Amino acid sequence: MRFFSDNAATVHPAVLEALAAAQPTDAAYDGDAISGRLDAAFSDLFGRDVAALWIATGTAANSIALATLCPPHGGVICHHAAHIQNDECGAPEFYTHGAKLLLADGPGAKLDVAACAAVTDAIGGGVHWVQPHALSITNATEYGMSYAPDEVAALGEWAKAKGLGFHMDGARFANAIVHHGCTPAAMTWEAGVDVLSFGFVKNGGLSAEALIFFNPDLAKVARIRRKRGGHLLSKGRFMAAQLLAMLADDIWLANARAANAGTARLASAAGQRALYPVEANELFLRLTADEAAGLRVKGFDFYDWAAGEARLVVSWDQPEAEIAALADALALLP
Amino acid sequence: MRFFSDNAATVHPAVLEALAAAQPTDAAYDGDAISGRLDAAFSDLFGRDVAALWIATGTAANSIALATLCPPHGGVICHHAAHIQNDECGAPEFYTHGAKLLLADGPGAKLDVAACAAVTDAIGGGVHWVQPHALSITNATEYGMSYAPDEVAALGEWAKAKGLGFHMDGARFANAIVHHGCTPAAMTWEAGVDVLSFGFVKNGGLSAEALIFFNPDLAKVARIRRKRGGHLLSKGRFMAAQLLAMLADDIWLANARAANAGTARLASAAGQRALYPVEANELFLRLTADEAAGLRVKGFDFYDWAAGEARLVVSWDQPEAEIAALADALALLP
Amino acid sequence: MRFFSDNAATVHPAVLEALAAAQPTDAAYDGDAISGRLDAAFSDLFGRDVAALWIATGTAANSIALATLCPPHGGVICHHAAHIQNDECGAPEFYTHGAKLLLADGPGAKLDVAACAAVTDAIGGGVHWVQPHALSITNATEYGMSYAPDEVAALGEWAKAKGLGFHMDGARFANAIVHHGCTPAAMTWEAGVDVLSFGFVKNGGLSAEALIFFNPDLAKVARIRRKRGGHLLSKGRFMAAQLLAMLADDIWLANARAANAGTARLASAAGQRALYPVEANELFLRLTADEAAGLRVKGFDFYDWAAGEARLVVSWDQPEAEIAALADALALLP
Amino acid sequence: MRFFSDNAATVHPAVLEALAAAQPTDAAYDGDAISGRLDAAFSDLFGRDVAALWIATGTAANSIALATLCPPHGGVICHHAAHIQNDECGAPEFYTHGAKLLLADGPGAKLDVAACAAVTDAIGGGVHWVQPHALSITNATEYGMSYAPDEVAALGEWAKAKGLGFHMDGARFANAIVHHGCTPAAMTWEAGVDVLSFGFVKNGGLSAEALIFFNPDLAKVARIRRKRGGHLLSKGRFMAAQLLAMLADDIWLANARAANAGTARLASAAGQRALYPVEANELFLRLTADEAAGLRVKGFDFYDWAAGEARLVVSWDQPEAEIAALADALALLP
Predict the structure, then answer these.
(1) Which residue range or ranges hold the Aromatic amino acid beta-eliminating lyase/threonine aldolase domain (chains A, B, C, D) (predicted)?
(2) Res. A36: pLDDT tops 90
(3) How is domain D13-249 classified at the CATH fold level?
């Protein structure tokens, strides 16, 4: 019973069906009819004109987004636990040609204005210091918390006042949306977000994420960067088809609801052991080595995090029985 | 009837079946069992230990290959019509951090030792000139010719003597292999090739090419570069499965044979109009604007190349009837 | 008797005197009073508001200029014999983060609109090709020719129509100005030039070139790039002082006049052997190996260029006697 | 009376004399006889064969050093207050093509093994995290402390065990040597340092620092990077001459002794106000805004650092009377 990550889950059947349906030859790259429907589909979803690019990974989406917002000699404010800082092998530095990540602090990998301002306040003027050009937050965060729209808006207002671009890493965007029950618009452009990495793969997709520009003009150079990064697949229709399949019938929301609900059930069973509020599909627990070993004996697979801590992730396709079994096991812990 | 490119053809049914079969959750990235079979499968094919990485595009494969062979301050010798020079939006410069492509000349986008030596002879020593570090050839070439193993070996010997790494862009490697009826080994490492971009997408794949290192040690940093380029998909098993499906039952060879045979038939019908020897699945023709228009009226879709020239590409899945119809139409030209 | 280059000549005494005069401590970097006079001094010279940055080498000046005009994914049109292509170890690619030099042809390393248009005409649209963003010419050229103001203006008009930035590598700008007897304004911004690398070191300076932005706004990021390239010296007053010393009393013009005049005298003696019109301080000659050896026996030091060709360069400080001796020796050649 | 920095002090007269003496034309770049003496001069100083490159700034020296030790996808451990992190506008990221600075903590900008190990212990394996490739320390530190040889050796041993390259930013190397009274060898290669940025400009030079490779093979690519960065001045003899002038008669040591002694005198006067041990030529003090204003009224110029803190720097050429006056003023503070 795998609770180690949502990034290797199965693919939603509708996605595989969409691949089969995309077979007929069409123009290459993103010149095909299916790719041609992306902008409209996401514009509908967000309630304004957006430019939407398919892209194979969240790492590439984040990095191209940041390269759009920040020059090589600039800096990007982010949490020190952010995926872009720790888990992408320096891809943001690669795509931005050496921009610096400026690290802020906050509980649960979540930032607020004070935390961001502490970073900018410490930076001198002139040409000697790398100057901040963008702010990047992750929603839901790397520790399973999620920003509410008004929290995003407070950061967006601050970023705008500082002249910074605003990026949201939404690898688990769906889980955040479901948790807050808000519109995608409220969570993004209405709150000042300029670019969104909209994750689908963890949530049932196969190999397509969406990179959303709320100012479609910004997408022009991003399309060049996508090609230059080797990310413009020749049979792009199979990428677009995945995204449209996930949007159809709100599969993306249903999948996130399932994962969040399962996580909430585990959190409830875990009680005071939770290290952070559970606001998406990840649960971080205090867990001794013996307790962890005991759970593994029962067949539960998960990651140790720090000493005495563990991470449990519920996937969109997690069987009900596995969640129930784990909840029972957690409830039995002392 | 589309003859404009093979890069948007359909996907071989076995590939789609392989995706469905890869559904069960396994470890993420390339830690899954299917990815774990790649090295052995390609080592079998090449008759020696190789490291094989799945990667989404030929552009990424080529660029990571070149970054492995050439430092930022080095140069890569290639034909001025090479895909890496003209069609990849500077991805080689991006992945190598600014290495320079050193352009050589030759008919049909094909290089020989004299052409390469003309480039190196013109380069001064010392730190002022960019020094060559690698040679890259395309087989089959961008103009549908293909190197025979002994031609590759002559270049390989020269490259080795000059201390240059040797890369082969094999976006249409299968077509070259089929044309010469040789082993993959004879065309590559036995001829001095260090790294091969082994194309599958034009030949029936969906979104997976293979990057083959004949010295497996070179793959170590390439795996890092793949991640850093945002190309390490989390559900990598679906990438590996495509490649294994194409190798199984020699689908990759059967598909290339079909495409080459169709092209040969067209070449035969076109007679003296062919601009280059037809040694793969591309046919370049002298064709007036009126003649081109006439063919299009009959339903044939293809690219104009230069003034008075056209390119016809036969895909692996090209219906027999389309080939016959185009052959007839070509034969009717004056 | 050294005729191999002007790049290792002595330093004009006024420059050394200016260094001594710059001793008193002032603010660091370019915050000192002497650096503060540069903009005004060059604005006077060019008859409009310019931003002027001191910088240690022509390579750095050229590279920062190009990085200002061209994004990493863009291209710069230049002659295939340009210094930026052959003699700077890829510094333009380094500072631009991988932009591509797009090579044009023309006699004597000189470009015209037709040569430039041949480059742009061969480039396809879309994201697959590197798109041109700038044009760079060298005046005087690497082969000792020089553009007249109207020739520059024709290129400037074309560049503007194409949306390209326009850079002039003026490592020997003074020699071109003196040859044409025109104003610095006529040769640059009045002809559409956006950025000028204004050379002083070959012409009597020690270690300071000037980078001139005719649109001062462009200098803002260039100042950041100068720092990021490690080119913002802490005792910058000694850099600015060199430039002001060279401008004072028109030393820069006097030095170039001397060098040009000496070269003209040699050209006159060499007669039909000259390979290119002599329009600056370089003379390229047809010269057999025996003839070259004969000159060297007489004490003349110079570079062989290609087979049967030699390059002679006259420096600003070349003794009259040396020029006379070489002129005599050339006149004696059969 | 300027105590704001040593980076804009006057140039030692011997350096100016050396410039005048270097006038006679010689080969360009670093092919001249004076540049040719550098390796031997620094090998003598360090008691082993070293490669020594002149370079215009400490920023360039540090960045090229780090690029030699760390690939684009690697990381460099340094203090969060290090000059390479805060004061070089991202030059290390530029020259390394995007390597990441991995920030460690310690009092007075000084690191020990525990602080460095805390950084490496937090880094996961595999390709997702940026892996450390080098350690960089500053000696004397940015807060005026200095490592003793055995402290450097402890770090060097740890770095070697971890497979990390070891760089020392010696912008104030002379001050550290003088403070500890040790040999340059003991402070560097005997303690495991691979590359040293050996500062001369703050200590009486004009525009030349030295980049010292204790493994001369490493210098080969560094020479290429120096050219590629636009740092290979054509009249390099004037760079080498500065360094040799500073080494002659141990001027570099005498100057540092003077600066350190002046600082010690100020520290003694300041008593308990000193924030860090004074081990070079910088003094950081607790100082209220009123107290700072009072000192400025008396004619002392210095930087505020953080709230309630000030930095005083004594230069090599600081007049005795200024030091005495400031010492008196400090002693009068309550």
Answers:
(1) 3-268
(2) yes
(3) Aspartate Aminotransferase; domain 2 (3.40.640)
